Amino acid sequence: MQINTAQLRKEPVGAERNYKIDELAGENNDNRVSGEVSLIRTNRGILVTGKLDADIKGICSRCLGEAYKRITFHMEDEYFPLIDIISGVHLHPAPEDFIIDNSHVLDLNEAIRQYIIMSTPTKLLCRPDCPGICPVCGHELARGNCSHTSGSSDHRWDKLEQLKKESKV
Ligand SMILES: [Zn+2]
Ligand SMILES: [Zn+2]
Fold it and tell me: Chain centroid to CA 110: how far?
């Protein structure tokens, strides 16, 4: 999301604007991001705060199928201008700072991309009770049992089970 900050930066320190966000962002723009951010004029630039939700897509750590999850993160970053809005003087923010460009535009996309990466759990599940895959043949157990998982889970004990049954008769 790109926001022109020219008007806000002509206002006194503490002036505030709120913006609703509902758009595609993140790596390759494949996360729907929604929520609200607040931009506050500081003596050096603009402070952006907000709470956003993002829909992420990944791989289930049990069955390797597609997994979807909604994450929530809080933003808080100060953006520094390349040009002083009043005097037109060029400024020199540090290389690691988020910047407001020569057209006074503040771009939230890079920050959002970083927050999504930081907030994404390392292990996703396609559903909380995903049964995973058969360790022998790789069959997806959500589709039902395979020959390895129906009945006894370990065939080495089949003979013993058989003997037990017979001895009971
Ligand atoms: Zn799964
Ligand atoms: Zn199997």
Answer: 13
